């Protein structure tokens, strides 16, 4: 599993690099890679460097499993509506350990836009989706996240626990989060949490775009829209279950 995770993050990647990142010997890693290749989970390039990547089989297995894909299927309609209303990029994220992962993105027609590739891990403290997720979580969960390392991903990232707590409390008060260039320089986002039937967050949806377009005068309009979308997705998900 460590090898699969390393390949997914760094593909295409060579044997020596995989061994270094997993702490295993080349011989052991090669035996595992050979088994994974025989099971169609990974594939090796025909190039001289003979790098390894995940196969389409691995993606297919992932696509058939878990809440994330089910949530994506449910969310795509409301997300389309949000994208048409705001004409900005819309992201859907789900939790994975102490971060979120992008599982769907609807792009803006504008040339200048926010972009996060599908599968990108998103830090909870540095993103609109992450702050919305923390705002909908328990205090104990937030405290646990803030005890870990808080990476600085842009010039404006809040990394002091008290600063992140302030953003979380503001998100709770207004019902949506605002992230001004905390994840990427020049990009502002507005996010809201998707809740299950027990009142726990299971994902987040956000609007993202250049800070020159998503200005403070639009925060309330976009915040209302993203909350409405998150609530619609929450309702549809509870109905599906």
UniProtKB/TrEMBL annotation:
Domain called IclR-ED: residue spans: 57-239
Database matches in Gene3D superfamilies: 3.30.450.40, Winged helix-like DNA-binding domain superfamily/Winged helix DNA-binding domain (1.10.10.10)
Organism of this sequence: Paeniglutamicibacter psychrophenolicus
Protein name: IclR family acetate operon transcriptional repressor
PANTHER family reported in the protein's UniProt record: HELIX-TURN-HELIX TRANSCRIPTIONAL REGULATOR, ICLR FAMILY, HTH-TYPE TRANSCRIPTIONAL REPRESSOR ALLR
Keyword Transcription regulation: yes
Keywords, sorted A to Z: DNA-binding, Transcription, Transcription regulation
InterPro entries reported in the protein's UniProt record: GAF-like_dom_sf, HTH_MetabolicPath_Reg, Tscrpt_reg_IclR_C, Tscrpt_reg_IclR_N, WH-like_DNA-bd_sf, WH_DNA-bd_sf
Domain of life of the source: Bacteria
Leader sequence segment: none
